[in-house]
Design brief:
By secondary structure, this protein is mainly α. The chain has 7 helices and 2 strands. It has a two-stranded antiparallel sheet with strand order 1-2. The chain is globular and about 40 Å long.
């Protein structure tokens, strides 16, 4: 079966779209990024937010037979600043030095906005959690990523 994929490649100067065929879904998402540590912690959080949301939605859909609105409400309980900050508190004692560095960089990153339902400290913790998730995902450390998301 032929699978056609549109690849979006974004650099600091330009955005290119490539049309590739004969790639499967796993090949697309299993390419670790070599210089993950060089990315801005806010960019890591951007990716981590998407990864975490997909993870939560996947679990909700696979473990229940709910209508979409109910799925959204259930997912929203886990995909918000307060819940993510709480998740960081749970995992902070098992983080490696490398992971602690990512969390620290994200916590100290300059932010121009905060979540509408969170104070600055909660928002920074949530951003740190998302950055860690993004870092592990882009690094390709899926075993560790799953371990942290499952806690």
């Amino acid at each position: 079966m032929l699978i056609y994929v549109i690849l979006l490649v974004v650099t600091q100067k330009e955005c290119k779209v490539f049309f590739a065929k004969n790639m499967n879904f796993q090949e697309i998402f299993s390419q670790p990024l070599a210089d993950t540590k060089e990315l801005s912690p806010i960019v890591l959080a951007f990716v981590g937010d998407g990864v975490h949301t997909l993870y939560v939605r996947d679990r909700v859909v696979k473990n229940s037979n709910l209508l979409v609105n109910s799925c959204h409400k259930l997912s929203s309980k886990h995909c918000n600043a307060k819940a993510q900050a709480g998740k960081l508190d749970v995992i902070k004692d098992i983080l490696t030095e490398e992971e602690q560095d990512i969390v620290r960089r994200a916590r100290n990153a300059k932010v121009n906005n905060i979540a509408k339902n969170a104070d600055l400290e909660t928002y920074k913790k949530a951003t740190s959690f998302e950055a860690l998730v993004g870092y592990l995902y882009l690094k390709g450390d899926y075993k560790r990523l799953k371990q942290i998301l499952d806690m």
